[in-house]
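Blackboard transcription, Thursday session:
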Amino acid sequence: MYLLRLAFASLANRRFTALLTVCAIGLSICLLLAVERVRTEARASFANTISGTDLVVGARSGSINLLLYSVFRIGNATNNIRWESFEHFQAHPQVKWAIPLSLGDSHRGYRVLGTSPAYFTHYRYGRRQALAFSAGRPFADDPFDVVLGAEVAQALNYSPGTEIVLAHGVADISLVRHDDKPFRVVGILAPTGTPVDRTLHISLAGMEALHIDWRNGMPARGAARVSADEARAMALQPEAITAFLLGLKSRIATFAVQREINDYRAEPLLAILPGVALQELWGLMSTAERALLIVSMFVVLTGLVGMLTAILASLNERRREMAILRSVGARPAHVFGLLILEAGGIAAVGILLGVALLYLGIVLGRGWVQARYGLFLPLGLPSAHELTILAGIYAAAVTMGAAPAWRAYRQSLADGLSIRL
Amino acid sequence: MTDALLELHDVAFAWPGQPTLLDIPALALARGESVFLHGPSGSGKTTLLGLLGGVHLPARGSVSLLGQSLSALSSSARDRFRADHTGYLFQQFNLLPFLPVAENIALPCRFSALRARRATERHGSVARAVAILATQLGLDEGLLERRADSLSIGQQQRVAAARALIGQPELVIADEPTSALDADAREAFLTLLFAECRQAHASLLFVSHDRSLAGLFDRNLSLLTLNRAAALETP
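(Written on the board underneath:)
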């Protein structure tokens, strides 16, 4: 125990170097933990984006592309699919529910999703959680009702009753706006931490009404224009949608239904299992993620090597200290232990500092991260995985501390009890 | 069994790859005796002290302390034995600068249970022993909590003396402890050291190149005459 006191007093005497070393280790550990936590949370929130859906169906393209535009609202569909195809599979005996998805418009950078009321009853995310309303209700008979995702409502400060104008296309600043047919906010969804938060939901009829007078990708002019009230009176049956989600009565049927859709003669379709596609997509990103982890591990290693350098550099000027200790009865083993304690102490304080910095960073930055990236960083206790990493770093530090300790041990054996410098 | 505290018998030592540095047929210290050992620089004084402390082992012959042959002990047992029975006092800078004075004095009791026990038996506690020794050596109580390196050289040497004496080791080895002091302070310091050694019944082996102090000791030796290897080599 007294060795600990000696190690501490000796370190305090060299507090400037010791503090710098502790800071270097602390910062590197903070970085590693932050990367780990963001990685874990990103993976979890990624896997939680959609659940309870057995198949995602779209025009034939790549499975990742389909997943990206149908679930993550990233990129665009290569092709639409016909309404008849949707109706055909909606009526399939194995299908419990079907949600049509129609994409292509936007509002101030947020995607607009045309769908059916089934979306609010059957869509699941996270651990099979259903969508909940924080205000208002689902869209109803009026085609110009819109339901906002939590983030849209918060960022744009909308509440039920607000009238908004949608834009054609998905660019941030759209040149063509559907300003002749304003929508009215009727409901706002509770936050989900998924792309749903960044989506505006309208009915398929509303989507159809927006484009009813469009020809060849351009709005009609003059007399050919259809007003909102005229549109309300028209039959607003879509001819095409972008994709649809299927829930099956039995999960065992998944592969059979998937094969049936992929072999559908009337139109080239692609059905994917969201879980499999999510894994594929994560696999694509995991290279970058792993590279990040490796880099941050090297940063920690650099911190530890810095500690090794600092301790080794101090040894020469501390030969007298060791000789004095020997002359008052310390054995070479004590000298060895003293330096191991020193390395262990620096590493322990560094680790504590790193963890403290991590929590400080999370407290200060979580709001921004959630707003900017939709990533929720929990303030929970370190996970078993994180503790394992920290224990590994500590073990590495103490192991590395054995090098200067061994050197001091040899030195003190050679120097004996007195040293004349 | 003799009443000698420390006994060297036909001891020879050489550093690896070098000619024999020490070749001492006999050297003995009686209990409570104070001995001045004179040797010029480079005559092997520090090496001899290393042999007496069991830090080095002689190539031939035996070194015994309290009748125990040091070569017969394992190296960690030798370290323990030395810590229990020998107090060391070196020339300047032999305190740990970052510890308070009191802690510096108490250091030997941290590493030797025997000396901690003796200090406690005699004075009630190690802290009491520290305070009493410090007072007897003319160190103000107010100094005890100060960092060791904030003291003057003279005060530091008295702290080192208190450290060498705490827990009543049978042998105190002093290696040029006065070289940094001026002549007046030197005598005053030695007077204190003698008094303390006498009180603790400790033998004192005082090694120095400065003969002017020799008269104060019970006995006076010269390493050059003791050491046969030096006699051969002396130019």
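Lecturer's comment: Residues 4-233 of chain B form a domain with the Rossmann fold fold (CATH 3.40.50.300).
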